[in-house]
Amino acid sequence: MVTEQQLQQMIGRYVRASYKTGLYVGEVLDVHSDKVLVKVVSVLKHPDQGDLHQPKQADVAFFHQRKALAQYEKVYVPLSTVKEYTDEIMEYKQSLDLALTRAIEQLQEKKTSWAEKSIEQLQDLRQDYSL
Q: What is the pLDDT of residues 110-124, one digit of tens each?
């Protein structure tokens, strides 16, 4: 079990944290017993596209387009998803471009209707992100 003192020592450190289906590097701003307030500084994995309740299904009522969290966006994440991050931190826009490229490349290998719809959404997002 993590002590309150250990939680407070996390403030100001960089962590890897997941939010929904995305993975980010962020600076810890505040810590509570079960959640951590993180300021996003880099993207490690772009969020999955589509319906979170019916993952990897293309034939759903509404196929959601999911954006990555924005640079410096603050979000509470569960403490259980937070791990210390000690690697080099990539600049936000560069990390977003890389995460988006990786996601598209992985989807191109799948050759499913969900992957095709996801690629369309990600390509639209690339334009929205001005990458």
A: 888 888 999 999 999
Residue 79, beta-bridge partner list? none
Q: What span, in angstroms and rounded, lies between the C-alpha atoms of 110 and 103?
A: 11
CA triple 79-80-84, angle to 5 deg: 75
Closest by Cα among 21, 4, 25 to 84 = 25
Mention every residue, 6+ apart, whose C-beta is less than 8 A from residue 123. Answer: 104
Looking at the chain, the number of H-run helices and the number of E-run strands are: 3, 5
What global pTM score does this model have? 0.89
Write the CATH number of the domain with boundaries 4-129. Answer: 2.30.30.430
87-102 pLDDT tens trace: 999 999 999 999 999 9
